[in-house]
């Protein structure tokens, strides 16, 4: 026998023992039957989730009870009622946020390499630090860090699909705050926390002022390490984020050419990073040449003279008598500049920021497209390793770019067929 309760679509079939009990109750008097009926155990399967009326026991509504799991439709009703604030990982809110956060990640990946342009040189053979540029980049970077902090907060309010419910149907969403938090803390929380830290700002405005005035080499090393240390996690973060967007909609964007443009942006972003690294290595190579020539001049030359903050009469006398300006040039065989000779020929380290950036970006795009074939390296292992990275990265990115463009063009042609 089948029975449905409270307008439920589910039908429950009774066994023979229950049928016999119902027959016995029907033969009793109405008063006795009502007493025995109240003694029967309550079967929660007879009550639908949103039902308020039940023959045996009044069912509580969604707002009146604490839920641990819910389906997507129930989660939307809970949010509209104001009882809970949880987001469906497959819902429109999370999908829209993933696109916004991906845009913020790409902007952050563009801003971070600009910190490598903070150091430069002057005509009087000293290394300076661009404080005005550092302030502007710190403000922009802090605004972008807000999106990373908001992403962490949103992850604590995003439900997840219970693994035990994935066998049949769409799966139930776990909406218990404790379970959501513990699952996030045990997985990607610490990775997201590293990406959200304002590390370059802390290094520029806290660590660098604590160093000695003559520690120009330490400034560049600490700044480079802090940027690379956080740049790699932020770069790796966009790949699972892109995969989530693709899994939700089936494509990166509705337009195939927009998806191809996204891959082109990644290719140009790699050129931007390589150009910034090439500029920083050029400044370091120039300082290394100065230090080597300074060792030849004896006690008259001191390494703190290469800091533009050092102003003294001894430095003025040394600069007038020094021979470093003639020794540290690409035309002289005193020092091997390798792939960085181009920066000294155009006096790139002493140019304005816009000239530095566009030329370095062009240098990175040119050598990435040519797979580093035109690079004439010196015998320095670090320089050779950098050229190898350019060649391998250019080969991989160029193959991915062409392959993805062909794939998206093919998909657009298939979708236009009748």
UniProtKB/TrEMBL annotation:
Pfam families: Ion_trans. The keyword Disulfide bond does not apply. It comes from the Eukaryota. GO terms for molecular function: monoatomic ion channel activity. It is a multi-pass membrane protein. Its main location: membrane. Residues 97-406 form the Ion transport domain. Gene3D superfamilies: 1.10.287.70. InterPro entries: Ion_trans_dom (IPR005821). Signal peptide: none annotated. Keywords: Ion channel, Ion transport, Membrane, Transmembrane, Transmembrane helix, Transport. This is Ion transport domain-containing protein. It comes from Aegilops tauschii subsp. strangulata.
């Amino acid at each position: 026998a089948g029975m449905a309760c409270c307008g439920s679509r589910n039908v429950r079939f009774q066994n023979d023992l229950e049928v016999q009990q119902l027959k016995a109750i029907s033969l009793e008097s109405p008063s006795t039957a009502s007493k025995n009926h109240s003694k029967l155990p309550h079967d929660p399967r007879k009550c639908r989730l949103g039902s308020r009326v039940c023959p045996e026991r009044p069912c509580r509504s969604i707002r009146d009870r604490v839920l641990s799991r819910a389906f997507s439709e129930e989660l939307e009703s809970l949010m509209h009622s104001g009882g809970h604030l949880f987001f469906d990982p497959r819902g429109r809110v999370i999908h829209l946020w993933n696109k916004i956060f991906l845009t913020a990640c790409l902007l952050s990946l563009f801003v971070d390499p600009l910190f490598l342009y903070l150091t430069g040189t002057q005509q009087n053979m000293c290394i300076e630090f661009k404080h005005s540029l550092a302030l502007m980049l710190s403000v922009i970077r802090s605004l972008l860090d807000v999106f990373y902090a908001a992403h962490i907060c949103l992850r604590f309010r995003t439900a997840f699909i219970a693994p035990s419910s994935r066998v049949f149907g769409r799966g139930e969403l776990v909406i218990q705050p404790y379970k959501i938090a513990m699952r996030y803390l045990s997985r990607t929380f610490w990775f997201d926390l590293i990406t959200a830290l304002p590390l370059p700002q802390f290094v520029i405005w806290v660590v660098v002022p604590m160093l000695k005035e003559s520690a120009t080499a330490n400034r560049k090393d600490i700044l480079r390490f802090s940027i690379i240390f956080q740049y790699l996690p932020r770069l790796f973060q966009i790949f699972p984020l892109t995969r989530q967007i693709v899994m939700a909609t089936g494509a990166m964007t509705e337009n195939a050419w927009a998806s191809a443009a996204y891959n082109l942006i990644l290719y140009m972003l790699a050129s931007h990073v390589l150009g910034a690294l090439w500029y920083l290595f050029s400044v370091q190579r120039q300082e290394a040449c100065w230090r080597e020539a300074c060792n030849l001049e004896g006690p008259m030359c001191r390494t703190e003279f290469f800091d533009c903050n050092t102003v003294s009469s001894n430095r003025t006398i040394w600069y007038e008598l020094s021979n470093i300006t003639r020794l540290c040039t690409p035309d002289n065989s005193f020092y091997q500049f390798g792939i960085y000779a181009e920066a000294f020929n155009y006096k790139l380290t002493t140019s304005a920021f816009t000239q530095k950036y566009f030329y370095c970006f062009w240098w990175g795009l040119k050598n990435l497209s040519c797979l580093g074939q035109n690079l004439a390296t010196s015998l320095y292992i670090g320089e050779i390793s950098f050229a190898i990275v350019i060649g391998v990265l250019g080969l991989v990115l160029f193959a991915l770019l062409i392959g993805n463009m062909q794939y998206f063009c093919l998909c657009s042609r298939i979708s236009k067929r009748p």
